[in-house]
From TrEMBL:
It is found in: Membrane. GO terms for cellular component: membrane. It comes from the Eukaryota. Belongs to the major facilitator superfamily. Folate-biopterin transporter (TC 2.A.71) family. Its main location: membrane. This is Folate-biopterin transporter 2. The chain crosses the membrane at residues 43-63, 117-134, 140-161, 182-204, 210-228, 299-318, 330-349, 361-377, 398-421, 433-455. Signal peptide: none annotated. The keyword Cytoplasm does not apply. It is a multi-pass membrane protein. Keywords: Membrane, Transmembrane, Transmembrane helix, Transport.
Length: 492
């Protein structure tokens, strides 16, 4: 009762403060926004999102990406087309996210639905990253298995936080866009920091040393699980787990087969699948001393950090200007600009930038920032819409299903890009066909414009899911992190 009165008093204080105006908004605006979210959603929700999205996925994901790029190129010495396919294999845990979502929704461990999965995923991340960092001359198959295990750890933590985001999007529908912005901003800030220092660490300690550093974000996930406070499920009927799985699957199928759901899901998959991923081919060209600009490890890290800045600017632009725009209009312009932005890569490979006196580094930085900003603007409204498609009771599982559709589209794009690189004979040292690969990719990027009839016409914030048949999976009403202040006070 006392805690509820304190929360209500804080909420009134925030409302009385009002939003900052004028030039003060540049400084106090973000603080006021965080304060508002902390009061309405509870501060622990904000802390959890920042920890998992910002530190584990943003910062850790940036180190992991650059480390894996150089690990495959310099340690395993694979071809770019092979590296593109292997990156898809290690992302498979993200495709089966509904499995992790079902586990967290219907199968508590020792009476808890969330805490054990945070703890176990963190431990899995620590063990897998330690193994690949300490093992010398690891076979490629074992390296792929270890990297896949690391991605599994991140995916399990991600789906648990996604459940909290989806649930709060249902209980606070007016804040759905704000919560997605919080996720995106945390991820972008973490990615910016991670990419900024990744090249330096790769140069100093190598890719295997970077994998060792990734044990720290993984350990933080376990810490979140230890601090998580949730009601313990008493006398849970484990003999009914099979029935609960079937009920959840039935509820997902009932929701998914509705036209308001499967149509935007189909668009999400196709728009990603046809936008071929050729990042490995571009990375090998970036670092080639003969035909490419021969960027150093530090330079590659800085380039990707500029991409993180672009993604951050995209999230800020969406939050402050574009979040209420009609969905089809947003997707039309962002998809069109996405294809046009890819032409910057074509100009770079053709060395057109040098004819205009623009250095390679500056041109790549501009292209990476613009591309990531447009990508963020393209997917922010779809993320908001996805959070509102989730039926109550299995929101974690269903949101994971929607994101797995997204990730399956990314896998299709990665494998399709690897096949295209192989067909056009782009190797570790031959890049004659890279310009054609880029051109084909850019043409395919604008094709999803023809599929915009699959998404709703209005803005995503106004969408309301109408589903009569929903699973009644018991879920804790309040999930919050234990206050460290309370822990200190109780110890006195």
């Amino acid at each position: 009762m006392v805690e509820e009165e304190n929360i209500e008093a804080c909420r009134k204080a925030v409302e009385e403060d009002g939003e900052p105006k004028g030039l003060w908004y540049c400084f106090w605006g973000p603080i006021h926004w965080f304060k508002m979210l902390a009061v309405e959603m509870h501060w622990s929700f904000v802390f959890g999102v920042v920890s998992v999205y910002g530190i584990n996925q943003g910062f850790g994901g940036a180190l992991s990406r650059i480390g894996t790029e150089y690990y495959m190129k310099d340690v395993q010495k694979v071809q770019p087309s092979e590296a593109q396919v292997y990156s898809g294999i290690t992302s498979i845990p993200w495709i089966i996210k509904p499995v992790w979502g079902l586990l967290t929704d219907v199968l508590p461990i020792m009476g808890y639905r969330r805490r054990p999965y945070f703890v176990l995923s963190g431990l899995l991340g620590v063990v897998s990253m330690l193994f690949i960092s300490l093992k010398s001359k690891m076979h490629l198959a074992f390296a792929l298995l270890t990297l896949t295990a690391g991605n599994t750890a991140v995916a399990v933590a991600d789906v648990t936080v996604d459940a909290c985001v989806a649930r709060n999007s249902i209980t606070h529908p007016s804040r759905a866009a704000d919560m997605q912005s919080l996720c995106a901003l945390s991820y972008s800030f973490g990615g910016l920091l991670g990419f900024s220092i990744s090249g330096v660490f790769i140069h100093l300690i190598g890719p295997k040393g970077v994998f060792g550093l990734l044990t720290l974000p993984a350990a933080l996930v376990s810490l979140v699980g230890m601090l998580l406070s949730e009601p313990q499920v008493s006398n849970f009927a484990y003999n009914e787990v099979n029935r609960k799985f079937l009920d959840a699957a039935k509820a997902m199928w009932t929701t998914l087969k509705g036209p308001d759901v499967w149509r935007p899901c189909l668009y999400m998959y196709l728009s990603l699948a046809v936008s071929l991923n050729i990042n490995e081919g571009m990375f090998y060209w970036y670092t080639d001393a003969k035909e490419g600009p021969s960027f150093s490890k530090e330079t590659v890290g800085y380039i990707f950090s500029m991409g993180a800045i672009g993604a951050l600017l995209g999230a800020i632009l969406y939050q402050n200007v574009l979040k209420d725009q009609p969905l089809r209009d947003m997707l039309f312009w962002t998809q069109l600009l996405f294809g046009l932005a890819g032409m910057l890569d074509l100009m770079l490979v053709q060395r057109t930038n040098l004819k205009f006196g623009i250095p390679d580094y500056l041109f790549v930085v501009i292209g990476e920032a613009v591309s990531q900003m447009i990508t963020r603007l393209k997917w922010m409204p779809l993320l908001v819409l996805s959070s509102k498609l989730c039926p109550s009771g299995i929101e974690g599982t269903f949101f994971a299903l929607l994101m797995s559709i997204d990730n399956f589209g990314g896998l299709s794009a990665s494998w399709g890009g690897g096949l295209l690189l192989h067909v056009l004979n782009v190797t570790r040292t031959k890049f004659d066909g890279l310009w054609l690969v880029i051109l084909i990719r850019n043409i395919l990027r604008v094709c999803p414009i023809c599929l915009l009839f699959l998404v709703p016409k209005g803005d995503p914030n106004s969408f309301i899911l109408s589903t009569d048949d929903k699973a009644e999976t018991p879920e804790p009403d309040n999930i919050e992190l234990v206050s460290l202040i309370h822990s200190v006070d109780s110890g006195r």
